[in-house]
Amino acid sequence: MRNLILSLIGVVLIVGAVFIGNKIANSKKKRRPVPEKVVKTVFTDTVKNGEVQIVIPANGNLVAKRRVELFSEVQGVFKPNRKLFKAGQKYSKGETLIRIDASEFYATVQASKSNLYNTIAAIMPDLRLDFPEIFPKWQNYLKGFNLDKTTPKLPEMTSDKENYFITGRGIISSYYNVKNQEQRLLKYTIKAPFSGILTQALVTEGSLIRNGQKLGEFIDTSVYEMEVALGKKYASFLKVGETVLLNDIEGAKTYDGTVSRVNGSIDATTQTITAFIEVKNNQLKEGMYLEANLNAKKEQNAIQINRSLITDSREVFIVRDSVLDLIDVEPVFFSDTKVVLKGIPDGTVILEKPIPGAYAGMLVKPYGKKNKAAKTKTPQ
């Protein structure tokens, strides 16, 4: 009997110890707080389709629209001029740029003119006897012949007999030989074809200039052009006469330009099309680097949003009853930062800024609106 009582007491002690141990162990467990479901606040915008101006960015360097590379067609010594032939020197239209010593060739021209005069004078007695009707006009020609001036044009031939007689005396060939020499004599003086500035000077006064030698470069500083290369997909957008806004690298100054020419062919290597933008401003210099924004065309019933808002599958997030959803869109034009879209109905609420990790069905709260969704707890 005593052993039975001891056994029962032992069982009770063991059960009590286990019970107390479990209770102590459970009392040391810390219950983790249940996280609340977070509703992200988003910036939204309401779609209103309208007219969107497509702007194509481009850049390039300015080049003078009118430029002349100066070459010599004759040989001689470069004679000093009123202005020094130096880079940066300004010249007005018609002003002498270069004078080459032509004293030797000038004497040759004068000798040829004298020979022509003597040849005509020698036939005057024959003209008086055989062709009295044409003698007066040739006599007047000799009276107007001045060795110090340009050789006047020969009298007009009125008959075949006159033509044969004059040609047979070698007068026609002598006349054109003199005119050829007079034209060559003019090449000893190079004049400015327009008002501008000398950008390159390769010779100095006193230098011996040879035939075919490059002397320098001369540009018109009133009008510049910028050549830009654009992707072939923009070829149908470009129009001559469109206004272009230009700005320097710093963005401090802006200039107004115009699309003056568009190349009719596409570069087979780069698959780009070349357009030329004309700009006038007295602050511009050749070689300046400018950025251009070309107004290509106007797209109707479209909107423009940040490029980061469109997905790779050409979808955008919209907000419908505080829940994100995806809809298909029709991209019309992509730039570096923007995209022009069509196919979104008016009144649709879209995201104004992208949300990291966004997905269809995500619960959101538009900025400025109170969240009506109850916070729920998720069981562990």
- How many strand segments? 22
CATH-level-4 superfamily name of the largest domain:
Efflux pump adaptor protein, beta barrel domain
What is the name of the CATH class of the largest domain? Mainly Beta
Fraction of residues in β-strands: 35-45%
Strand order, sheet with most strands: 3-12-15-14-13-16
The rough form would be described as rod-shaped
The SSE order reads: HEEEEEEEHHHHEEEEEEEEEEEEEEE
Q: Mean pLDDT, rounded to whole units?
A: 85
Describe the biggest sheet?
6 strands, antiparallel, barrel
- Total discrete domains: 4
Oligomerization state of this entry?
single chain
**Distance between the terminal alpha carbons, to the nearest Å?**
52 Å
Radius of gyration: 46 Å
> The CATH topology of the largest domain is what?
Elongation Factor Tu (Ef-tu), domain 3
Explain this structure.
The protein is α+β, with helices and mostly antiparallel strands. Helices cover 23% and strands 36% of the residues. The chain folds into 4 domains: 41-52 and 301-366, conserved putative lor/sdh protein from methanococcus maripaludis s2 fold (Beta Barrel), CATH 2.40.420; 55-64 and 221-297, Elongation Factor Tu (Ef-tu), domain 3 (Beta Barrel); 70-99 and 191-219, Beta Barrel (OB fold (Dihydrolipoamide Acetyltransferase, E2P)); 104-186, no CATH class. It has 5 helices and 22 strands. A hairpin with a 5-residue loop joins strand 13 and strand 14. Mean pLDDT is 85; it is low at 370-380.
